[in-house]
Design goal:
The complex is a heterodimer of chains A (about 950) and B (about 300). Chain A is α+β, with helices and mostly antiparallel strands and about 950 residues long. Chain A is about 25% helix and about 30% strand. Classes of the chains: A alpha+beta (about 950), B alpha+beta (about 300). The complex binds flavin-adenine dinucleotide.
Chain lengths: ~950, ~300
C-alpha cells in the first residue's frame, strides 16, 4: 500500500472484470420473454414522407408490433434542447430537435421511420424489407456554403433559411490591431471530424414491471440521471419509478450523452405498451447514421501580427455544420471559438460563426468537441506567420504565451458553459521546452532532417500547443459509506465508459479515509444508487465527480473523528486515521472503522440528537467554471512524395492536467486520444456525396486507425494544480486528440518543404495529398460517370428505333427481366443484378426517355430500387452517322443510395463500366440479326 | 446486420460437397474461411439459400511439393499456412512473402487460398500473385476435374471460370525458374486493407543478364488482376537499367491499366501508384534475380 494512492500508478480495479468477460454490458442483459427491435430508416437524405405501408411487416410470423409516427399519438414529441445557448448579446439560435419517428419529412439518411419489434433480431430485420416507404426526394442540403446561398432547399421549412445559429463575440479592437500590424495573414481553413466509433455501439433494454410499477432501463448512456428524469417526464411516471442503469459501457466519446435518441425514447415506451422487455442493439451500419457525430467547419481567419511575431489580433468567421437538428445547442462551435485562443495572449479577437442545418446526421460533441477546429486555425496561422517573419516555430509560440503570472486570465468572451472564458492557471513555456527536448527538436532540425534530405528522404517535424477547457459544472455528487465490515462504498451518478473511474474515485476516497484501495467499492451509473448529477462529458468526470467523492469522504472523516473522539475520549485533534482504524496519536488505542460504523448504527440506545446514524455522507461539488488543462504535441513524420503516404515515426505529448490522480490513467486517456487524433488527421472522414449519401458507411471504408497506424507515444507530465478544486484537478479526456491535426499538418508541410505544399485542411488523405502535390484543386467524388462510344454497323434510323423499343432496351439492363411500356416514353420493369458477393438482387426499374430528338439524341433516366437501396442513372445519348454506320456516344451519371452507397463504393466505378459495356454488347447482339457492329470504347 | 435465413450443410468430402452443390444449383454457395462471404451475408448483399461448409473437408487442406518442385496447395489451405509453410516459402516464395499484406493475422487464420481465389476481388493480393506465378487451378465438378490456367481462371469483376456447382480444389504453383527474382509491393491505406494499388512481379534474366521474361500483375486497378502486357514487352531483352525499369513502369501505368476512381483514390492517383510501385517492384525483383535468389536449389 503506497503512502498515498493519489498520484501513484495504481492498477485499474475494474480491469479484472473487464478482461475476464465478467463485466456487464447492456447487450449482455437477457430477460425472460425479451423481444428485439429493428428500425426502418430513411434511404434518402431529404424528402417528403408520403406513405409508410407496414401491413406486410405486421403479417410476418414472429413480428409482434410495427410502429410508425402515427401510432405514437401524444408520445410523438421532438426531443429536448439539452444545452441552451449562452447569453451572448445578439445571439440567434433556432431550436430544431430530433423526432422519435419521421412524420412528414426525412432530414438525413438513416432517420428512423418505423420500429419493428419481433421475436428475434433476425426476424425484425427480415421484416424491414416488408415495409414500403414512399418518399418524394427533395434536393439535399450538403455543402455548407451552398446551404447558405439564396434559394437553397431548406432543411426546416418553417425557418427562412438553413441558418441554425449566428454568434458574434468580440474583445479588444481588431480593426486597430489590423491597422497596426506588420503583416496580416489570411487563409481559408477546413477542418472536418468524424465518428466517435466507440467499440460498443449504443444499446437499450427496457423492462416494465407492472406489479412494482417500475420501469428499468439499461442504456449505454454517459448520463443516466438526465435520461431517467427526461423519460419519467415523458412517460408520466415519477422519477422514482424509473431506474436507468448504465453498466460498463464500451466507450462514450460524447455521442452517448443524454441525447434522448429516438431509440432511447421508443424502447421504454414499447416495452410498457407490450408488457414485455425489449432490446435494441445498434449495429455498426446504423451507427454511421443513428448516433451523433462531428463534422466540418470552414474558417476564414486572419492574424494581425507585429514584426516581432506578437499577435495583435485575430479575426475569424466560420461556418459550422450542425446536421439536421441541433439538440446540443452551440457547444461545439463555441468550443471552437474559445479554444482557438489557445495559450496565447490575443489582445483583440473578433469571432463570428454561423451554424448551418444540413441533411446529415446530428452533430454533437465528439471527444475534442470542436476544440481541434479552433486549435488548427490558430496553430496554422502561427506557422504561416513564423515562416513569413523568418521566426522559429518555437519562438513565435514562446513570444505569445500567457506567462505564469497572468492567471486567472479573463478573455472577456463566454464559454460553452455560459461562464466567462477565464483560465484558472497554466504554465505553458516549460511544457514547450520539455516537448522540444523529448522530440529532439534541435537535433532533428540541424542534423537528422538535413541528413535525410541529402539521402532523398522527406522527414518533417510538427510541434503545437493547445489548451483544453475541462471540468465544467453544473455539479456532481457522491455518497461515501463505511460499512460495519470496514468496507467503504462510494456511489456517484456519472456514467463510466472505460476511463478508470472505479480506480480514480477509489484512490481519492482511500486516501481521505486511510483505507486500502481494495476495500473501496465504487458504483456509478445506476440511478437507484445515486440520483443527482449530470453525466460524463467535457473531460469532467474525474474533476467534478472526483472532487465530490473527496468532499463526501472528508465529511465521513469528520463523522469518524466525532464519534471516535467520544468513544476514545480524546479530542479529534488528538486522533489520526491509519490502516483502516482511528488511533489516538502516539498510543496503541484505536478503533477499526468497521467497528465504529457498527457503533454509529446501534440497534439499541439512541443516536445522539444532532447526529446522523452510520458513517455516511453525501456531498456535491459545483465549480463556477472549468479548469484549463494544456499541453504540447510534437511528431516526426516521413512522407513518400511519390506515393503520398505518410508514416508517423515519433510522437511526443507533454500534458498538464493539474494534479495527477493516477499517471497511468492519464496516459491511457492520452494514448486513446492521440489514436483518435491520428485517425482524424489522416484516416477518418465521413464522405458525403451531393445527395447526402454517406459513401463510406462501414469500417471497411471508414478508416479507423489500428495499432499498426498509431506509433508509440512518449509522454511528459507536468502538474500545475487548479486553484478551483481542493485537490487541484483538471480534465484530460479529450486532450490527446485536440492538437493532432495541427501537428500533423505542420509536420507534413515541413517534410514536403521542397514541394512548397501548404496544408490548410484536415483530414488529409493520401489521395488529397497527391492532389496538393500535383496542384490540382480538391475533387469531391460524387457520382460515377461512365462515358464512351459504340459503333453500330447499321443505319441511324434502325438504331434509333431499336433503342426506343422496350424489347431491345430490356437487353441493355443487366439481368433485365421484363420491361413494359407505361407512358409514351416510360417503361416499367424488373432487373436482377448479381456481381460477385451480390447474389441476384432484384431491382424494380423505371426507364424514362427524355428530350428526344429523333434520330439524333435522347436522354434516358433509369431509376432502380431494391432492398439494397436505389440507383439513378442519367444518360445522354447521341447518334451520329458515319461511314461505318452509326456512332453512339453516351455519358451516364450514376447516383446510388442506401446500402449500395454505403458499402459498395470500392467497386462501383468498375461495376458501372462493366455493366454498361455488357449492356451495350447485349443490345448489339440483339441487333446482330440486322447486321454486325463493333465496339470502340 | 443479420443474414437472411439459409440452410446449412457440412459435408466431409469433396464428392459429398459436389452433390449438395449440384442439388441446389446457383442458390448454394461454398463456405470456406467466411471472411468475405459472411460479411456480405450480414449486409444481406449475398443471400445464398444454402451454405455448403467446406471446413470439414480435410482432403482440401494440404500443401505438397512434388518432385518437379511444384507446390500443390489444397483450396482450404489457410492463408496463415501459406505464410509459414516451409514448402511454400521455398517453392513459391512470392506467395508466402505476400501473405502479410493480406488482411490481418486473425483473418488469415480463417481465410483460405481457395476462398480468395474464388472470390476474385479485384484488389485482392492472392489472385494477382497466382497470376504472376502462372499458377494452375484445379477445378472439380460432378462431371470430373479440369485444370485452368491463371489467365483463364480470373475472368472479370468477382468472376472466375468456376461454374455453379464446381469447386476449386487445388492450386499448383510452378517453381521459380533459374535466374528469376520476384517482389510484391502495394499501397494500402492501413496495414491489412485492400490495396489502393499493388504489383506482383516475377522476372527472369537470360545468361547475359537481360530480361528474358517478366510477369507483372497489377491489383486494385482493373476488373480483376491485370497482367501488364505492355510492360512485359518493354522489358523483354532489355538489361534491367533504371531507365528500362522506368520505361516499363511507365508503360504499365499509361497503357496496361485504366484504373477506377473511388472514395479512397482517384484514377490519376492509382495510375501514379502503378508507375511507382511497378518501378520499385521491378528493381527489387531484378536485384534478386541477379543475386541468384531464384535458383531454388540453392536455398
Ligand atoms: C477485415 C478484413 C480485411 C481483409 N483484407 C483483405 C486484403 O487486404 N486482401 C485480400 O485479398 N483479402 C482481404 N480480406 C478477405 C480475406 O482475405 C478472405 O479470406 C478471402 O477473400 C476469402 O477467403 P475465405 O476463405 O474467407 O472465403 P469465403 O468468404 O468463405 O468465400 C468467398 C467466396 O468464395 C467462394 N468459395 C470459397 N471457397 C471456394 C472453393 N473452394 N470453390 C469455389 N468457391 C469457393 C465462396 O462461395 C464465396 O463466394 C479481408 C477480410 C476482412 C474481413
Amino acid at each position: 500500500m503506497p503512502e498515498r494512492y493519489v498520484g501513484a500508478r495504481v492498477r485499474r480495479s475494474e480491469d479484472e472484470r473487464l478482461l475476464t468477460g465478467r463485466a456487464l454490458f447492456v447487450d449482455d442483459v437477457q430477460l425472460d420473454g425479451q423481444l428485439h427491435a429493428a428500425f426502418v430508416r430513411s434511404e434518402h437524405a431529404h424528402g417528403r414522407l408520403r406513405d409508410v405501408d407496414v401491413s406486410a411487416a405486421r403479417r410476418r410470423p414472429g413480428v409482434i408490433s410495427v410502429i410508425t409516427a402515427a401510432d405514437l399519438g401524444d408520445y410523438w414529441r421532438p426531443g429536448p434542447l439539452l444545452v441552451p445557448p449562452p447569453p451572448i448579446p445578439g445571439l440567434i439560435f433556432h431550436t430544431c430537435t430530433q423526432v422519435p419517428l419521421v412524420r412528414d419529412k426525412v432530414r438525413h439518411v438513416g432517420e428512423p421511420i418505423a420500429m419493428i419489434v419481433a421475436q428475434s433480431r433476425y426476424v425484425a430485420e427480415d421484416a424491414l424489407a416488408d415495409v414500403v416507404v414512399d418518399i418524394e426526394p427533395l434536393p439535399a442540403v450538403v455543402d455548407l456554403e451552398a446551404a447558405m446561398a439564396a434559394g437553397a432547399a431548406r432543411v426546416h421549412e418553417h425557418l427562412a433559411s438553413n441558418l441554425a445559429a449566428h454568434v458574434v463575440q468580440r474583445t479588444g479592437d481588431y480593426d486597430a490591431a489590423r491597422a497596426a500590424a506588420h503583416r496580416v495573414i489570411r487563409r481559408r481553413f477546413r477542418y472536418d471530424r468524424g465518428l466517435s466509433a466507440a467499440i460498443e455501439n449504443r444499446c437499450v433494454v427496457a423492462q416494465w414491471d407492472a406489479r412494482a410499477e417500475e420501469l428499468t432501463i439499461w442504456d449505454t448512456t454517459q448520463a443516466p440521471i438526465p435520461i431517467r428524469n427526461g423519460l419519467a417526464a415523458r412517460l408520466g411516471l415519477l422519477e422514482s419509478q424509473v431506474r436507468v442503469i448504465a453498466p460498463f459501457v464500451g466507450g462514450g466519446f460524447g455521442p452517448k450523452i443524454m441525447m434522448h435518441y429516438p431509440e432511447e425514447v421508443l424502447i421504454p415506451w414499447i416495452a410498457m405498451q407490450l408488457g414485455r422487455p425489449v432490446k435494441w442493439t445498434e449495429d455498426r451500419q446504423e451507427n454511421f447514421f443513428a448516433t451523433t457525430q462531428e463534422r466540418g467547419q470552414v474558417h476564414d481567419a486572419e492574424l494581425a501580427v507585429a514584426q516581432d511575431g506578437r499577435i495583435l489580433g485575430i479575426r475569424d468567421v466560420f461556418l459550422h455544420d450542425t446536421g439536421a437538428y441541433d439538440p446540443y445547442g452551440l457547444t461545439v462551435p463555441i468550443n471552437s471559438q474559445c479554444t482557438l485562443l489557445g495559450p496565447y495572449d490575443v489582445p483583440a479577437y473578433d469571432t463570428e460563426f454561423t451554424a448551418v442545418f444540413t441533411n446529415k446526421p446530428i452533430v454533437t460533441p465528439v471527444r475534442g468537441a470542436g476544440r481541434q477546429h479552433g486549435v488548427f486555425v490558430m496553430e496554422r496561422l502561427l506557422d504561416l506567420a513564423a515562416r513569413e517573419l523568418g521566426l522559429d516555430r518555437l519562438e513565435i509560440r514562446r513570444r505569445n504565451y500567457l506567462s505564469r503570472d497572468r492567471f486567472p486570465y479573463d478573455h472577456h468572451i463566454l464559454f460553452q458553459d455560459s461562464a466567462p472564458l477565464v483560465y484558472d492557471s497554466g504554465d505553458y513555456a516549460p511544457a514547450l521546452e520539455e516537448a522540444a527536448k523529448l522530440i529532439g527538436y534541435h537535433h532533428f532540425l540541424h542534423e537528422e532532417q538535413p541528413r535525410a534530405r541529402a539521402a532523398g528522404r522527406h522527414v518533417g517535424l510538427g510541434i503545437v500547443s493547445y489548451i483544453e477547457g475541462t471540468g465544467i459544472g453544473p455539479y456532481e455528487g457522491a455518497r461515501v459509506t463505511v460499512e460495519p465490515s470496514g468496507q467503504v462504498r462510494v456511489a456517484t451518478g456519472v456514467g463510466t465508459q472505460g476511463q478508470g473511474h472505479f480506480t480514480a474515485f477509489a484512490q481519492i476516497v482511500a486516501d481521505v479515509l486511510a483505507v486500502r484501495i481494495e476495500h473501496v467499492h465504487v458504483v456509478t451509473g445506476d440511478t437507484r444508487e445515486f440520483n443527482w448529477g449530470t453525466g460524463t462529458f467535457a473531460s469532467r468526470g474525474a474533476v467534478v465527480a472526483g472532487t465530490a467523492c473527496h468532499a463526501a469522504a472528508t465529511a465521513v472523516r469528520t463523522k469518524v473523528f466525532d464519534l471516535a473522539s467520544r468513544l476514545l475520549e480524546t479530542p479529534p485533534e488528538g486522533l489520526e486515521l491509519v490502516g483502516g482504524a482511528v488511533r489516538v496519536v502516539g498510543s496503541d488505542r484505536s478503533i477499526d472503522l468497521g467497528a465504529l460504523a457498527a457503533q454509529a448504527n446501534p440497534l439499541r440506545g439512541a443516536v445522539r440528537p444532532g447526529t446522523e446514524p452510520g458513517l455516511e455522507a453525501t456531498a456535491y461539488y459545483g465549480p463556477d467554471r472549468g479548469s484549463t488543462a494544456s499541453g504540447v504535441h510534437a511528431m516526426i513524420v516521413e512522407v513518400d512524395p511519390e506515393t503520398a503516404m505518410v508514416t508517423i515515426q515519433k510522437y511526443v505529448v507533454v500534458h498538464d492536467c493539474g494534479r495527477l490522480i493516477n499517471p497511468m490513467l492519464v496516459e491511457g486517456q492520452i494514448h486513446g486520444g492521440v489514436a483518435h487524433g491520428i485517425g482524424n488527421a489522416f484516416y477518418e472522414q465521413l464522405m458525403w456525396d451531393d445527395n447526402g449519401q454517406l459513401q463510406n458507411a462501414s469500417l471497411m471504408d471508414y478508416l479507423l486507425p489500428t495499432a499498426t497506424e498509431v506509433p508509440p507515444i512518449v509522454i511528459g507530465h507536468r502538474e500545475t494544480p487548479s486553484p478551483l478544486s481542493p485537490i487541484g484537478l483538471k480534465g484530460v479526456g479529450e486532450a490527446g486528440c485536440i492538437p493532432t491535426g495541427a501537428a500533423f499538418a505542420q509536420a507534413v508541410e515541413d517534410a514536403l518543404a521542397d514541394f512548397h505544399v501548404e496544408i490548410t485542411e484536415i483530414p488529409l488523405s493520401p489521395d488529397r495529398l497527391f492532389q496538393l502535390l500535383q496542384r490540382t484543386p480538391p475533387q469531391r467524388r460524387n457520382q460515377v460517370i461512365v462515358e464512351g462510344s459504340y459503333v453500330f454497323r447499321l443505319p441511324r434510323a434502325v438504331v434509333w428505333d431499336a433503342l426506343q423499343d422496350p424489347a431491345v432496351l430490356v437487353r441493355a439492363l443487366p439481368g433485365g427481366m421484363a420491361l413494359e411500356q407505361q407512358g409514351e416514353a416510360s417503361y416499367h420493369g424488373a432487373m436482377r443484378v448479381g456481381i460477385g458477393p451480390v447474389t441476384a438482387a432484384e431491382f424494380t426499374v423505371r426507364v424514362t426517355l427524355l428530350d428526344r430528338e429523333p434520330p439524333q439524341r435522347f436522354a434516358m433516366v433509369v431509376d432502380g430500387h431494391s432492398g439494397l437501396g436505389f440507383t439513378r442513372g442519367t444518360a445522354q445519348v447521341s447518334l451520329e452517322e458515319d461511314a461505318a454506320g452509326t456512332v453512339m456516344r453516351y455519358r451516364a451519371e450514376l447516383q446510388v443510395g442506401g446500402r449500395i452507397a454505403g458499402v459498395g463504393q470500392r467497386v462501383l466505378d468498375t461495376a458501372a463500366k462493366l455493366m454498361t459495356r455488357q449492356g451495350l454488347e447485349l443490345v448489339h447482339r440483339e441487333l446482330a440479326g440486322r447486321r454486325t457492329g463493333e465496339a470502340s470504347a | 446486420m443479420k443474414p437472411a435465413a439459409f440452410a446449412y450443410h457440412r459435408p466431409a468430402s469433396v464428392d459429398e460437397a459436389l452433390e449438395i452443390l449440384h442439388a441446389h444449383g446457383s442458390d448454394a454457395k461454398p463456405l470456406a474461411g467466411g471472411q468475405s462471404l459472411i460479411p456480405a451475408m450480414n449486409f444481406r448483399l449475398a443471400r445464398p439459400g444454402v451454405l455448403v461448409d467446406l471446413n470439414r473437408v480435410t482432403e482440401l487442406d494440404f500443401v505438397r511439393r512434388d518432385d518437379r518442385g511444384e507446390i500443390h496447395c489444397g483450396a482450404m489451405t489457410r492463408q496463415r499456412t501459406l505464410e509459414h509453410h516451409t514448402d511454400v516459402i521455398r517453392g513459391a516464395p512470392l506467395l508466402a512473402e505476400t501473405m502479410p499484406s493480406v488482411a490481418h493475422a486473425q483473418i488469415r487464420n480463417r481465410g483460405t487460398l481457395g476462398g480468395s481465389a474464388a472470390h476474385a476481388d479485384p484488389a485482392a493480393e492472392i489472385p494477382a500473385v497466382l497470376l504472376a506465378l502462372d499458377a494452375r487451378f484445379i477445378v472439380r465438378g460432378r462431371e470430373g476435374t479440369r485444370s485452368v490456367s491463371a489467365e483463364r481462371f480470373f475472368t472479370g469483376l468477382f468472376q472466375t471460370a468456376l461454374a455453379p456447382g464446381e469447386l476449386l480444389v487445388e492450386v499448383v504453383c510452378p517453381p521459380p525458374p533459374p535466374r528469376s527474382g520476384w517482389a510484391f509491393l502495394e499501397v494500402a491505406r492501413r496495414h491489412g486493407d485492400y490495396a489502393l494499388a499493388g504489383v506482383a512481379a516475377v522476372v527472369t534474366l537470360d545468361e547475359r543478364g537481360r530480361c528474358a521474361d517478366s510477369r507483372i500483375t497489377l491489383l486494385g486497378v482493373g476488373e480483376g488482376p491485370v497482367l501488364a502486357a505492355r510492360a512485359r514487352k518493354a522489358l523483354k531483352g532489355e538489361p534491367p537499367t533504371p531507365a528500362a525499369l522506368r520505361e516499363a513502369a511507365q508503360a504499365a501505368a499509361a497503357k496496361d491499366v485504366d484504373p477506377p476512381g473511388d472514395i479512397h483514390a482517384s484514377s490519376a492517383y492509382r495510375r501514379q501508384l502503378v508507375g511507382v510501385l511497378t518501378r520499385r517492384a521491378l528493381a527489387a525483383a531484378f536485384e534478386r534475380a541477379s543475386a541468384g535468389a531464384g535458383d531454388a536449389t540453392k536455398r
